[in-house]
Amino acid sequence: HETESVGSLLVENLSLKPLLVLNGEIFDGAMQDRVANETVLIPSKTSVEINVSCVEQGRWSYKTKAFRRGKNMFNYHSKGVKDLHNNSFKHNQPSGSIQSNVWSSISDKQRRMGVFSRTGSINDTYEKYEESLQELREEIIEQDNQIGLLVMIPGKYIGIDLFTNKAIFKHYKERLYSSHLIELLEKVRNFRNFRNGRRDIRKQIDSFMLELMYSKEVHAKKKLGEEYSIYKRASQVSSTCLALNEDLIHLTSMKNIENSHAR
After folding, report:
1. How many Å from the N-terminal Cα to the C-terminal Cα in the chain?
2. Which of 3, 86, 214, 231 has fewest C-beta within 10 Å?
């Protein structure tokens, strides 16, 4: 449900099981589409307000009265920009408005990819490249016990998403794949800085993993579970982990390696 604030939605869980809302999930409908800012577990038979950002700047009229889970996740680089600014506040190092940076990231991407969207909706970017995304998806080779993914788009970012088990990953994997592949399409179109040596890529991934291991965490209690976040302004590393009873539910992390986005 909508609330009095554009920056929040009220999620009502009518089931007898906890409901998982994933960081980066898009909710379509109401007066503009929104994206979940964090991963949240909603207890059964409970209503919880969650933090969101608007991902459709140019619409302020009802498409539908209710929200529904969208068929797309937020494109991964824009999600990373959102998370960087979101986590900067948690670490008392504010680096600008989350919402304005989300809108800028969407419009910059659409400009680079030649996408016209009347309302500035990220869904229009996915729609234009739907066929190309499907062709790239067929190239992905999965592992039998896969519970997440580690992706590097050379010259752009390194990102990782891990889940507690393969069943939950399976539920989200297609949208997660597309959220990375839409970034790869942009790099293929521009092809700048796309060629990197294999050894250099491995070094950057190793460095990213070390930064996650040794960065300072901020801990917060949730309605259900506990959240740990990392923010490093200098290296543009941001990470958020949701745990329940000391078990990982979802970890998402990104290192922005585009100098133009360093702040």
Report:
1. 35
2. 214
> What are the structure tokens assigned to 148, written together?
């997440």
**Residue 150 and residue 205 in contact, taking contact as beta carbons nearer than 8 Å:** yes
Q: Give every strand in the sheet of 217-221, ordered side by side.
A: 148-153, 157-163, 247-256, 237-244, 226-232, 217-221
> Is residue 229 a contact partner of residue 91, using CB atoms and an 8 Å limit?
yes
Other beta carbons within 10 Å of 192: 8
205 neighbors 153 (Cβ within 8 angstroms): no
Q: How far apart are CA 28 and CA 106, in angstroms?
A: 16
> What is the 8-class DSSP label of residue 110?
H
Token pair in block for residue 24: 């980066």
List phi, psi (to 5°) of 54. -80, 135
CB 173 within 8 A of CB 250: no
Give the C-alpha separation, 5 to 16, whole Å. Answer: 28
- Give the pTM: 0.90
Structure tokens at 124: 């229009």
